[in-house]
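Lab manual, section 2.4: Encoding a predicted structure.

Procedure: take the sequence of the chain (459 residues), apply the prediction step described in section 2.3, and record the output as structure tokens. A sample record is shown.
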Amino acid sequence: MPFDLREIMQRSQGKQLSLLSEYINPQMAKVLKTLGFDPVYVLGQGAHLWDDKGNDYLDMLAGFGVFAVGRSHPRVKDAIRQYLDLDSPNLVKMGTQLFAGLLAQKLVEEFAPPGLDTVFFCNSGAEALDGALKFAHAYTRRKRFVYCDQGYHGLTLGTLAVNGCKEFRADYEAVLNGGTEVPFGDTARLEAELSRGDMAAFVVEPVIGHGVFIPPDDFLPKAREICSRYGTLFIADEVQTGFGRTGKLFGCDHWNVVPDIMTLSKSLSGGYCPIGAILYPRKVYEKVFSSMDRCMVHSTTFGQNDLAAVCGLITLEVIREEGLIENSALIGAYLVDRLRELAAKYELIREVRGLGLMIAIEFGEPRSLSLRTGWKMIHGIHKDLFCQSILVPLIMDHHILAQVSGHGRDIIKLIPPLVFDHADADRFIAAFDQVLAAAHRFPGPIWEVGSRLARVALR
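Recorded output:
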């Protein structure tokens, strides 16, 4: 019997949740079912998803930032089809790969900050950050790293050592060594740590993804200067902020900071094939790959694979030629302005902040007695419930997919595809306005959602 992917998909459609539950992640399946985040999606294009009932969903998640150019971009799909027809000699290993070389050349010559002239390809942001830590140690011969509270750099054992999200570290503290945390934005604490002379690298997201925390304007420039003074490498984790997410090519560009090492992933993939990259200078390369017998001292099986490189090449072209960085800045500013209008209208919103299409809506305890009663009730049961009470009606009543920005935080995060337009933004604002209006009635439907979720959480 011939392999017919379309027939397999049609025959199996609707089994997604049961397959997840039985073979992959039963707890995640329970979460999705409880929250109502379990539609059967059958189509994705641009900034939209469609379910098996024909409902159009606005995607404010973009696969955690992967679909920068939008879902099913026709130029990306065409490049993949062209590649598959080539029957190229992929992953020869004891040989060279053309497309990986071309992607590295394009990154260095057209996109990378000055001085970052060497590329290591891998498969994910966490793998890129892991490699960057290893490279920093090889270059400095130092064993410690400094990172920022709330910063997120991945969930591998190596990246957990510099992960500022305590909920991910808690079960592994006994085996995490070499990382020291400083407050995001605190250059005095940073200098106190670096002045000891034993820090290999300072690792930072230019804008912290979990919560969309934007640094004071002087933080990254001062951090850059302090790192240079004490011989510590500055590693910029641009896995999420890179390639236009913040309205500039890289997050560091907002402060004219050039790192020693930069890690990339997410947007570079076009949404189709995993890819990560480390951009670093030749002087660091020469310490890591220091002789011919060490040419494979750091490697990964699927690094430099043709398909990932082709996806990267076409994605970079799309981002530049379609003006997606400029669109991110334009639509992001429009969304923030509209959200701040809602913040002035609704007391539950404490702050709206963002750069480009990386936006946070932070809620806070309201002033009015009745709303404060509901707030304290929900938070007394579980700190994650309030935002879920907002997100559930957004997806169920308005077909808008968004996320809570980390555990125990009253923050909703928006990272839609960079093809997001004014009509998409207006649709979100109209829906969010209705949900917020309902949330400002206590008792009311939003608080009933919270109570239902609370009962499930208590069980």
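Check your result against the sample. The CA atoms of residues 204 and 236 lie 5 Å apart.
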